[in-house]
Design goal:
- The protein has 308 residues and is α+β, with helices and mostly antiparallel strands.
- The protein has three domains: 15-66, no CATH class; 67-121, Ribosomal protein S3 C-terminal domain; 122-276, Aspartate Aminotransferase, domain 1 (Alpha-Beta Complex), CATH 3.90.1150.
- Helices cover 39% and strands 29% of the residues.
- It contains eight helices and eleven strands.
- It has helices spanning 2-10, 15-27, 34-45, 48-65, 124-144, 238-265, 267-275, 295-303; strands at residues 69-71, 78-80, 86-88, 91-94, 99-104, 109-115, 148-156, 167-179, 184-197, 202-215, 221-234.
- The strands form three sheets. The chain has a five-stranded antiparallel beta sheet with strand order 7-8-9-10-11.
- Helix 2 (15-27) runs parallel beside helix 4, helix 3 (34-45) runs antiparallel to helix 4 (48-65) and helix 5 (124-144) packs parallel to helix 6 (238-265).
- The radius of gyration is 23 Å and the shape is globular.
- The relative contact order is 0.09.
- This is F-actin-capping protein subunit alpha.
- Belongs to the F-actin-capping protein alpha subunit family.
- Heterodimer of an alpha and a beta subunit.
- Keywords: Actin capping, Actin-binding.
Length: 308
């Protein structure tokens, strides 16, 4: 038994095992916290080579999945890093300014920009629909998300030069509220695919919303809520399509936010009770009648903007 124990203690993880474990921690970091995780990982690993390789592989995936927003040099504008705007591994298109941002994923900065090439941009016909929708979504986001950023990308049929061809636009909305000094961070991400079907004159709309919140004062609680939507409207002029699509997105997102608010209003009465047995090992009854005194409920509601 002693020999087996010594053998287990002496077992060393392989290079690849260390790298995969490091990547897992980086990829699963809550919104806005990957750099804190990276700093701790560096110290724990004590292996610069393993860390650097894990970071080079994990940061691009994390940045795209979290749709981080980076400011472009000279305040040209902001670019959302996503798979929908990706031209190469380090180049991302901002269709609003027709600029391509060159991104350092590990530092999470936009180091420089270049003008987009003609082949990277949609045709004038598609751009008419894209820019009209972009303007309506910008208006909606400015009204609904104090720190929100949006973009509209053309992902299919972008070279169409007139009616008679199907095409697809993708709306991205991202908002974050980071307050690590108060032990609380939160994010909102929504992706809406709009499939313009020319023959049927129908717009098929599919969306996915993901809400995250991490509260880590005197504990470690994380929310990861997801919701998918499907809707449709008729194919109209560019301006009319934009208004209809923006109204549909506004309706579904507002409704979902309302559902979250209802769920959190019931948190003290229902959820806390489900998390604990009625008589804990301390043999002391939990004060269910006064659960609002606990900071977890208040802080998570506040972080998501659900508080009254």
């Amino acid at each position: 038994m002693a020999d087996e124990k010594d053998e287990l203690q002496e077992t060393e993880l392989s290079y690849d095992q260390k790298k995969e474990i490091a990547k897992w921690f980086l990829l699963n970091a809550p919104a806005g916290e990957i750099n804190y995780v990276a700093k701790d990982l560096k110290e724990v690993l004590s292996d610069e080579e393993v860390y650097n390789e894990a970071a080079m592989e994990a940061f691009p995936v994390y940045n795209k999945s979290h749709m981080i927003c980076l400011e472009m040099p000279s305040r040209v504008g902001d670019v959302i890093v996503s798979s929908f705007s990706e031209i190469t591994e380090n180049e991302y298109l901002d269709p609003r300014t027709a600029q391509v941002a060159i991104v350092d994923h590990v530092k999470q900065i936009c180091s420089k920009v270049r003008p987009a090439y003609d082949e990277e941009l949609p045709s004038s016909y598609i751009e008419e629909f894209r820019s009209a929708l972009d303007a309506e979504i910008q208006r909606y986001v400015s009204e609904s998300y104090p720190k929100g950023v949006s973009t509209v990308n053309s992902v299919k049929g972008k070279d169409a030069d007139g009616p008679g061809t199907d095409f697809e636009l993708v709306v991205l909305i991202t908002a974050r509220k980071l307050s690590p000094q108060n032990f609380c961070n939160g994010s909102w991400r929504s992706v809406w695919h709009i499939d313009f079907q020319d023959e049927s004159q129908v717009l098929d709309i599919k969306g996915k919303v993901q809400v995250g919140a991490h509260y880590f004062e005197e504990g470690n609680v994380e929310l990861d809520a997801k919701k998918e939507f499907q809707d449709s409207t008729i194919f109209q002029s560019a301006d009319d399509c934009a208004i209809a699509i923006a109204n549909i997105i506004r309706h579904h997102e507002t409704e979902y936010l309302g559902a979250l608010e209802v769920a959190y209003s019931k948190l003290p009465d229902n959820t806390f009770k489900d998390l604990r047995r009625k008589l804990p090992v301390t043999r002391t009854l939990f004060p269910w009648q006064n659960t609002l005194q606990f900071s977890l409920t208040r802080e998570v509601e506040k972080e998501l903007g659900l508080g009254k």
